[in-house]
Specification:
Mean pLDDT: 87
Shape: globular
Strand content: under 5%
Number of helices: 10
Helix content: over 70%
Radius of gyration: 20 Å
Largest sheet: none
Low-confidence stretches: none
Distance between the termini: 62 Å
Structural class: mainly alpha
Length: about 210
């Protein structure tokens, strides 16, 4: 094996082990020496590839998010004409599925940001220019096409997020590991986490902001 391929393999092992650790503990629980040991390399090799912990965790977050954002951009097709309301629905449908698949990681990121992790805070600050922007652009276009009620797009986005995505993230994130909830709350948690139920909330939410007769 040549040196460049070996170096690339080492870097990939570190990233892979780092992602596994973050899924379990969040960024705040990531320890460089433990990542290096799990990857079978020494800490000096970690420093060679990433420089420091902050650069490493920043790359980890982007490694997780970049494929998600790429899928959403492909669905939104902002550079192409078409029915913006239909594309908005498609993007939110995709977000629902992605939220279900990645709720644990996303919940950790929110907790990491609150705990003062700079990489998590920087990631959350970038979101308005990324997939949230896709949704805002589609909302504004649907309004211009006469499909949605007249209201500030950020207000409509808050409404959709609170009705659809927030219950899903809560139920599949922090609440998923709770063992102290009463049985009645457990049933509510199952409903909140259910994808078909989230799709039903999506239909209700969009109906609430769609102009009559559309």
């Amino acid at each position: 094996m040549d040196a460049s391929k070996k170096s690339g393999d080492t870097r990939q092992r570190l990233l892979s082990q780092g992602l596994d650790m973050v899924r379990r503990t969040g960024l705040r629980g990531l320890v460089v020496r433990e990542v290096a040991a799990a990857a079978g390399v020494n800490p000096g090799s970690f420093v060679y590839h990433f420089g420091n912990r902050e650069r490493f965790v920043t790359e980890l977050v982007e490694l997780w998010y970049a494929p998600i954002y790429r899928q959403l951009r492909q669905t939104a097709r902002l550079r192409q004409p078409g029915d913006a309301l239909a594309r908005l629905r498609d993007v939110i449908e995709q977000l629902l599925q992605l939220a279900a698949e990645h709720a644990g990681f996303a919940s950790h990121l929110a907790a990491d940001a609150l705990a003062g992790e700079p990489a998590a805070q920087a990631f959350l600050l970038r979101l308005p220019s990324r997939h949230m922007r896709l949704l805002l652009v589609l909302l504004a276009r649907a309004q211009r096409q006469g499909r949605l009620v007249d209201a500030p797009p950020p207000q409509l986005l808050c409404y959709l997020v609170s009705a659809i995505g927030l219950p899903l993230l809560l139920a599949r994130g922090p609440l998923a590991a709770s063992d102290w909830l009463p049985q009645q709350a457990r049933q509510l948690q199952r409903w909140m986490a259910d994808i078909p139920a989230a799709r039903q909330r999506l239909a209700w939410a969009l109906a609430g902001i769609t102009k009559m007769g559309e």
